[in-house]
Amino acid sequence: MCQFCVEHGDGKKWYLEAENYACDLESDLRRRGFIIDFARDFDGHVARGIRYLEALKHVPAPLRRLAHEAATRRLRRSHFGQPVPKEDAARILDITTSIVRVPCVCRRFHGKGDHAYCLLITTRPIADLSTDPFVVDLAARILPDYGAGPDLSDFELLTKGQTMTMLDDCEAEGLLHSIWTFVTPFIGAMCNCNLSSGCVAMRINQSYGCRVMFKGENVATIDAARCTGCGSCVARCPFEALAGEDGRANVRSGECYGCGICRAVCGEDAIRLVDRRLVPETAHSW
Ligand code: SF4
Ligand code: SF4
Ligand code: SF4
Question: Are residues 95 and 149 in the same domain?
Fold first, then answer.
């Protein structure tokens, strides 16, 4: 179990606890303010954050390390992500009542278009986006420039079946699924992306010493008897956790985030996800 399971899951997978998606959390004023500020000025937050992290490159290493640790602690309390394999994503969608597909803010930030890869998830029932008072009020605060009411034409209410089809399509594209907090422990979104699609969090993880995305609950293992060494999984892993050696794929367990998208591309059914705690090298690495 990761630290979030201990703190917010009573020792079980914390993202399978219904209360972490609950409406009372959603209507909490501080959290609501955080969500509005986050969504209204996403580009500004990212640009300022990256400027700060770039500036830190010029300070002495011990101070830089302290600053990175402080930033990671702040993010852990406010907004962070964790990969979830598709089977856990399905269980999360069983818990949540409403799923709203919205454009991806990271892709937009990087000029990669307004593709709708983000899912807002909540236990709050939503029958119609355009008349739901909570949605309309929140959207009006996030999109204040629309005098006649917020434009929700890019938002789409999905069923669980439609969402699972979308998740399959994402895996075929090499996109991993991750859950995101908005003032921890409230989980408000499930994202679908990878480093090359423009994920700001993965870029920060990879390029700087602080973390916006933490490792998942699992780690990949390869069945050497099945692996043909085709290399498809190696090319697919966004965290460079797989390497081809001696005609087979090998997992560098310490780098693995347990997302499972390597498994989706293996035609030999040679990849399994196992509980991270059962692998000595990863048992305490999040
Ligand atoms: S975390 Fe992923 S899906 Fe979510 S906004 Fe960023 S790139 Fe888009
Ligand atoms: S995709 Fe499967 S068969 Fe190909 S290298 Fe990876 S584990 Fe082996
Ligand atoms: S090895 Fe597989 S499960 Fe691990 S991070 Fe890479 S793609 Fe994800």
Answer: yes
Q: Same structural domain for residues 134 and 54?
A: yes
- pTM for the whole structure: 0.93
pLDDT band at residue 151 using 50, 70 and 90 as cut-offs: confident
Question: What type of residue sits at position 160?
Answer: K
Same domain, 164 and 88: yes
Whether the CB of 259 sits within 6 Å of ligand 3: yes
- Tell me, yes or no, whether 235 and 140 share the same domain: no
- Between residues 71 and 1, the one the model is more confident about: 71
Whether the CB-CB separation of 78 and 163 falls below 8 Å is answered with: no
Ligand 1 within 6 A of 106 CB?
Answer: yes
Alpha helices, DSSP H, located in 190-248? 200-207, 232-236
Of 159, 180, 207, which residue sits at a domain end?
Answer: 207
148 has a pLDDT exceeding 70: no
Tally of domains within the chain: 2
The predicted-structure confidence for 121-133, as pLDDT tens digits, reads as follows 999 899 999 899 8
Q: Which of 84, 191, 259 to mutate to test the pocket of ligand 1 (most atoms within 8 A of CB)?
A: 191
Tell whether 110 and 225 lie within a shared domain. no
Q: Which of 129, 116, 103, 113 is nearest to 39 (CA)?
A: 103
Let me know if residue 62 belongs to a domain. yes
Q: What is the best residue among 84, 178, 233, 237 to mutate for testing ligand 3's pocket, by most ligand atoms within 8 Å of CB?
A: 237
Contact 98, 127 (CB under 8 A): no
Judge whether residue 172 has pLDDT over 70: yes
